[in-house]
Amino acid sequence: ATPAATMVGTAIGAQNGVLFKGGDILERAKDVDTVVFDKTGTLTEGEMELTDVVAVDGEQPVADGGTAAAESAAVSSDRLDEDDVLRLAASAERGSEHPLARAIVEGAEERGLDVVDPDGFENVPGHGVRATVDGDEVLVGNRKLLRDEGIDPSPAVETMERLENEGKTAMLVARRPAGADEGELVGVVADADTVKDGAAEAVGALRERGIDVMMITGDNERTARAVAERVGIDPENVRAEVLPEDKSDAVEAIQAEGRQAMMVGDGVNDAPALAVAHVGTAIGSGTDVAIEAADVTLMRDDPIDVVKAIRISDATLRKIK
Ligand code: ADP
Ligand code: MG
């Protein structure tokens, strides 16, 4: 492209809130044949809200949304109730800055529960948290977090699957009383996020241009697919349960198939993936780390601007051919 054409394209981008970091980026964007979206905060608002709290008997599933009045008769008397489960989870999550954690804490406080600061706290990235609350060890996180601690998540599986099929992120809550060898599953909490208004339209417009659209997330497969379905991404194009440090490998694997990928993300987690992508795009209120690693910054928080970026690149460079 001539320097003049590149300048015009860059200026048109800026007018539309699409900031290309340089003329070479503007040229590269037209070659994108695959767009990989991060899920949380990119396709969704990233503003979680606590939606469900279910007490679970570690030995067997208990009354879940009206399933079994009969089952509740079998419940041991010292079983925690919903408020106990939520209070434990929220107290453990007070140590975490994760959006999932903040929603749990806020939900518990809204219900007027006595949430306390944990005495000890440890983040288990991509899996959850481990904390000490009232002297007991408390775990909040995914199936793997519990399995790694030798706690069987299966009594909660039905509840988890029901919530995940609704597109919610369900988290297990377990407790190991002080001095006890074994931990026990005590409940499930779930957070939900809202899909951004422009997400489905953006995916549709990209596909119309013949661009493959994929999604990558640390969230579980079932939740990821439910969200993908809402925005029009094929289930086979979903990469779920990808650990933060593995996101860039996942993008490299996609590019190793000969694709020219644009990765779109907002978080610190996404920065390495943005850096390895053919074009890295940071969206909206993205973190500084993501913006720094990216080639393109979308000033507005609207996924439709991904289409704009590609269209501007395409139009600018076609004109001068
Ligand atoms: P994402 O890519 O969606 O931001 P993460 O990689 O941060 O997700 O986390 C992956 C999964 O690990 C979450 O879906 C959740 O099941 C679990 N997890 C992570 N952090 C927490 C937390 N603070 N509390 C409970 N669960 C968590
Ligand atoms: Mg994100």
Quick tags:
single chain; 321 residues; alpha/beta; Rossmann fold; Calcium-transporting ATPase, cytoplasmic domain N; 6-stranded antiparallel beta sheet; 40% helix; binds adenosine-5'-diphosphate; binds magnesium ion
Gist of the model:
The protein has 321 residues and is of the alpha/beta class. It is built from 14 helices and 13 strands. It has a seven-stranded mixed beta sheet with strand order 1-13-12-11-2-9-10, with helices on both faces. A six-stranded antiparallel beta sheet has the order 3-8-7-6-5-4.
Question: How many helical elements?
Answer: 14
Question: At the fourth CATH level, what is the homologous superfamily of the largest domain?
Answer: HAD superfamily/HAD-like
Main beta sheet strand tally, sense and closure: 7 strands, mixed
In CATH terms, what is the fold-level topology of the largest domain? Rossmann fold
Protein name: P-type Cu(+) transporter
Subcellular location: Cell membrane
Family: Belongs to the cation transport ATPase (P-type) (TC 3.A.3) family. Type IB subfamily.
Organism: Natronococcus jeotgali DSM 18795
